[in-house]
Specification:
Oligomer: heterodimer
Protein name (chain B): EamA domain-containing protein
Keywords (chain B): Cell inner membrane, Cell membrane, Lipid A biosynthesis, Lipid biosynthesis, Lipid metabolism, Lipopolysaccharide biosynthesis, Membrane, Transmembrane, Transmembrane helix
Helix content of chain B: over 70%
Number of strands of chain B: 0
Transmembrane segments (chain B): 6-26, 47-69, 75-93, 100-119
Organism (chain B): Dyella soli
GO molecular function, one term (chain B): transmembrane transporter activity
Strand content of chain B: under 5%
Number of domains of chain A: 1
Number of helices of chain A: 7
Chain lengths: 143, 121
């Protein structure tokens, strides 16, 4: 289960990051933004927007696979590792400034995810789902 | 922040919460089975589509919201979704909120909020 979570979230964050970076590249290639057909043509005229769409699809299937077992509360929190990865890639690829407040925020996010990983290693995640999900839907009492 | 921005913010939190809880309901259904059959089963049930429709609506609401506030302010306000979804998971799916889990979730929320305040530097 640990391996399932580790690689699952790693793949999810990779897709999330790819989507955001592709959106940024798509926007840059289509610059300047305009409320007209020409802008739409420019957006769809570069491969970046298609990479974003593929990333969205990959993200969806990965997320639905993770949610088969993962509790939604902690899992949704973990997906915010994307904030950190996108920040680091933005510094590298787009020369965005890495200020101290942003670094502090990133470190707090990582600390939170470390806490969630510890919480999971000390519990039995299979007890969270799917029986409880079934109960909540009123199909049958979970426990 | 004007009343329209507040309305769009609350609508975003609501749609995000409904979407994520619906996805969890679809993905965690023990009747769904495994492999391709699982995806077919999920596609035949309402929850997956409730999630997809919520997300499509949220996408537009988020764009409208961001046109009224700064991106950093939007990210800051959006971080509340993490806490609301945690509470939703507790109520609907009886997810255990151990001290370690709550600490982790609150730290991630705080971190996202700090990045929001920090903005683009």
């Amino acid at each position: 289960m640990k391996r399932f979570y580790f690689f699952g979230f790693l793949i999810l964050v990779a897709f999330d990051t790819a989507v955001q970076l592709a959106f940024k590249y798509a926007g840059n290639h289509a610059f300047p933004p305009e409320a007209n057909w020409a802008w739409i043509v420019r957006v769809f005229g570069h491969p970046w927007i298609y990479i974003a769409v593929i990333g969205y699809i990959g993200n969806f299937f990965t997320w639905m696979t993770l949610l088969k077992h993962a509790p939604i509360g902690p899992a949704f929190a973990v997906t915010h590792l994307e904030v950190v990865s996108v920040m680091l890639f933005s510094v590298w690829l787009f020369n965005e400034p890495l200020t101290w407040p942003r670094v502090a925020g990133a470190l707090v996010i990582v600390a939170g995810i470390v806490c969630l990983a510890f919480a999971e290693s000390g519990s039995h995640p299979e007890h969270d789902a799917p029986t409880e999900a079934k109960g909540a839907l009123g199909v049958a009492a979970g426990d | 922040m004007g009343p329209l921005a507040v309305f769009l913010w609350l609508l975003n939190v609501t749609l995000d919460t409904i979407g994520q809880l619906a996805f969890k309901a679809a993905a965690g259904d023990p009747e769904a089975g495994d492999g391709i059959a699982r995806w077919k089963y999920m596609a035949s049930r309402p929850w997956l589509w409730v999630g997809v429709i919520s997300y499509a609506a949220e996408f537009l609401v988020w764009i409208a919201f961001l046109s009224l506030v700064d991106l950093s302010e939007g990210v800051l306000l959006g971080s509340i979704n993490i806490v609301v979804i945690m509470i939703g998971g507790r109520i609907l799916f009886r997810e255990k909120l151990t001290p370690m889990r709550v600490t982790g979730i609150l730290l991630v929320t705080l971190g996202v909020a700090i990045v929001g305040v920090a903005g683009g530097g």
